[in-house]
Amino acid sequence: MNEQRHHGSCHCGAVAYDVTMSLDNTITCNCSMCGRAGTILAFVPAEKFTLLSGEDNLTSYTFNKKIIDHLFCNVCGIKPFGRGKDQDGNDTVAVNVRCLEDVDLTKLEPYHYDGKNA
Ligand SMILES: [Zn+2]
Protein backbone atom coordinates (compact mmCIF):
# COMPACT_ATOMS: atom_id res chain seq x y z
CA MET A 1 0.00 0.00 0.00
CA ASN A 2 1.33 3.41 -0.87
CA GLU A 3 1.60 6.32 1.46
CA GLN A 4 -1.57 8.34 1.51
CA ARG A 5 -2.71 11.50 3.17
CA HIS A 6 -5.11 10.93 6.04
CA HIS A 7 -7.01 13.26 8.32
CA GLY A 8 -7.25 12.43 12.00
CA SER A 9 -8.89 13.96 15.04
CA CYS A 10 -9.99 13.37 18.60
CA HIS A 11 -13.70 12.89 19.33
CA CYS A 12 -14.64 16.48 20.12
CA GLY A 13 -12.57 17.81 17.22
CA ALA A 14 -10.32 20.09 19.26
CA VAL A 15 -7.29 18.07 18.13
CA ALA A 16 -6.97 17.62 14.37
CA TYR A 17 -4.09 16.60 12.12
CA ASP A 18 -3.04 15.51 8.66
CA VAL A 19 -0.56 12.69 8.21
CA THR A 20 0.99 11.06 5.16
CA MET A 21 1.53 7.40 5.79
CA SER A 22 1.04 3.82 4.71
CA LEU A 23 -1.27 1.52 6.67
CA ASP A 24 0.93 -1.52 6.08
CA ASN A 25 2.80 -1.42 9.37
CA THR A 26 0.23 -0.98 12.10
CA ILE A 27 0.71 -2.53 15.52
CA THR A 28 -1.29 -3.34 18.57
CA CYS A 29 0.46 -3.83 21.88
CA ASN A 30 -0.39 -5.48 25.17
CA CYS A 31 1.63 -3.17 27.44
CA SER A 32 -0.01 -1.56 30.46
CA MET A 33 -0.95 1.51 28.39
CA CYS A 34 -1.90 0.16 24.95
CA GLY A 35 -3.66 -2.85 26.41
CA ARG A 36 -6.00 -0.54 28.29
CA ALA A 37 -6.42 2.11 25.60
CA GLY A 38 -6.94 -0.36 22.73
CA THR A 39 -5.02 1.78 20.28
CA ILE A 40 -3.88 0.62 16.85
CA LEU A 41 -0.64 2.49 16.22
CA ALA A 42 1.55 3.34 13.27
CA PHE A 43 4.86 5.12 13.71
CA VAL A 44 5.69 7.89 11.26
CA PRO A 45 8.53 10.43 11.00
CA ALA A 46 7.47 13.73 12.56
CA GLU A 47 7.87 15.57 9.23
CA LYS A 48 5.02 13.48 7.78
CA PHE A 49 2.68 14.76 10.48
CA THR A 50 1.01 18.17 10.68
CA LEU A 51 -0.96 19.18 13.75
CA LEU A 52 -3.75 21.46 12.50
CA SER A 53 -5.24 22.37 15.86
CA GLY A 54 -5.34 21.42 19.50
CA GLU A 55 -1.78 21.71 20.79
CA ASP A 56 -3.19 23.49 23.85
CA ASN A 57 -5.75 20.72 24.39
CA LEU A 58 -3.16 17.96 24.57
CA THR A 59 -2.21 16.63 27.96
CA SER A 60 0.93 14.53 28.19
CA TYR A 61 1.20 11.40 30.27
CA THR A 62 4.49 9.55 30.61
CA PHE A 63 5.46 6.40 32.49
CA ASN A 64 8.14 3.74 32.67
CA LYS A 65 11.15 5.07 30.72
CA LYS A 66 9.27 8.28 29.90
CA ILE A 67 10.43 8.19 26.30
CA ILE A 68 6.96 8.43 24.81
CA ASP A 69 4.63 11.36 25.27
CA HIS A 70 1.26 9.67 25.57
CA LEU A 71 -1.07 12.50 24.60
CA PHE A 72 -4.77 12.77 25.17
CA CYS A 73 -7.34 15.48 24.52
CA ASN A 74 -8.22 17.24 27.76
CA VAL A 75 -11.79 17.80 26.54
CA CYS A 76 -12.87 14.37 25.28
CA GLY A 77 -10.12 12.06 26.57
CA ILE A 78 -9.32 10.45 23.22
CA LYS A 79 -5.69 9.59 22.40
CA PRO A 80 -5.26 10.69 18.78
CA PHE A 81 -1.45 10.34 18.69
CA GLY A 82 1.70 10.33 20.79
CA ARG A 83 5.21 11.66 20.37
CA GLY A 84 8.53 9.89 20.79
CA LYS A 85 11.91 9.17 19.24
CA ASP A 86 13.01 6.33 17.03
CA GLN A 87 16.17 4.28 17.67
CA ASP A 88 18.28 6.95 15.98
CA GLY A 89 16.81 9.77 18.05
CA ASN A 90 14.61 11.19 15.31
CA ASP A 91 11.26 12.71 16.25
CA THR A 92 8.52 10.19 15.64
CA VAL A 93 4.76 10.33 15.92
CA ALA A 94 2.73 7.32 17.00
CA VAL A 95 -0.54 7.80 15.15
CA ASN A 96 -3.63 6.13 16.59
CA VAL A 97 -5.02 4.71 13.36
CA ARG A 98 -8.45 4.44 15.01
CA CYS A 99 -8.62 8.26 14.93
CA LEU A 100 -8.16 8.52 11.15
CA GLU A 101 -11.08 9.19 8.88
CA ASP A 102 -11.58 7.02 5.80
CA VAL A 103 -9.79 3.95 7.20
CA ASP A 104 -11.53 0.57 7.15
CA LEU A 105 -10.25 -0.91 10.40
CA THR A 106 -11.39 -4.39 9.39
CA LYS A 107 -8.88 -4.31 6.51
CA LEU A 108 -5.88 -3.74 8.77
CA GLU A 109 -3.63 -6.58 9.79
CA PRO A 110 -1.79 -5.17 12.78
CA TYR A 111 1.28 -6.84 14.18
CA HIS A 112 0.67 -7.87 17.77
CA TYR A 113 3.62 -6.53 19.73
CA ASP A 114 4.29 -8.19 23.09
CA GLY A 115 5.02 -4.97 24.93
CA LYS A 116 4.10 -6.50 28.26
CA ASN A 117 7.19 -8.70 28.10
CA ALA A 118 9.50 -6.39 26.14
ZN1 LIG B 1 -11.15 16.08 22.04
Key phrases:
118 residues, mainly beta, three-stranded antiparallel beta sheet, 41% strand, binds zinc ion
Structure description:
The chain has one domain: Metal Binding Protein, Guanine Nucleotide Exchange Factor, Chain A (Beta Complex). It is globular, with a radius of gyration of 13 Å. The strands form three sheets. Strands 4-9-8-7-6 form a five-stranded antiparallel β-sheet, with no helix packed on it. The protein starts with a strand and ends in a 5-residue tail after the last strand. By secondary structure, it is mostly beta strands. The site of zinc ion (ZN) has 9 residues, from loops.
Layout of strands and helices, then pairs:
Blueprint: E1 4-9, E2 16-21, E3 27-29, H1 34-37, E4 41-45, E5 49-53, E6 58-61, E7 69-73, E8 81-85, E9 91-96, E10 111-113
Parallel strand pairs: 3-10
Antiparallel strand pairs: 1-2, 2-5, 4-9, 6-7, 7-8, 8-9
Bound molecules: zinc ion.
Structural class: mainly beta
Provide a count of the helices.
1
Q: Name the overall outline.
A: globular
The rounded distance between the terminal residues' Cα atoms is 29 Å
Percentage of residues in DSSP E strands: 35-45%
CATH fold-type name: Metal Binding Protein, Guanine Nucleotide Exchange Factor, Chain A
Mean pLDDT: 94
Radius of gyration: 13 Å
Heterogens: zinc ion
**SSE succession:** EEEHEEEEEEE
Q: What does the main sheet amount to? A: 5 strands, antiparallel
List low-pLDDT spans. none
How many runs of DSSP E, i.e. beta strands?
10
Strand arrangement within the widest β-sheet reads 4-9-8-7-6
Which range best describes the helical content: under 10%, 10-25%, 25-40%, 40-55%, 55-70% or over 70%? under 10%
CATH architecture: Beta Complex
Q: Would you state the CATH class?
A: Mainly Beta
Number of individual domains = 1
